[in-house]
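sorry for the late reply, my laptop died twice this morning and i had to redo everyting from scratch. anyway the thing you sent over, i finally got around to it. pasting the sequence first so we're on the same page, its 93 residues, then the predicted structure underneath. double check i copied it right bc i was rushing
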Amino acid sequence: MKICALCRKEIEVDKYFTKKSVCPHCGGDLRICRNCRFYSETSHNKCLETKAEHQRSREKANFCDYFVFGEGKTPGAPDKADALKKLNDLFRK
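ok and here's the structure:
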């Protein structure tokens, strides 16, 4: 399952996915850093791929050679329910 990082709605990505592909729900670009599996708010350059070039905008289409569409949840974002459970478990001990 792929999820648009901009509108958080489920989308289908076919084999013709390009830099010009847009979300059918919000019209936002899909080939963006925030949709990439390497995107990370806490990493240097907001990217887990150390060889990737710096991108000025994380929400605009780019030509990054390392782009891989993330699976399941918004790429780079921790699962909120899992994080909350860990936090609650920490304070129950």
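The chain has one domain: 1-93.
thats about all i looked at so far, will dig more tmrw
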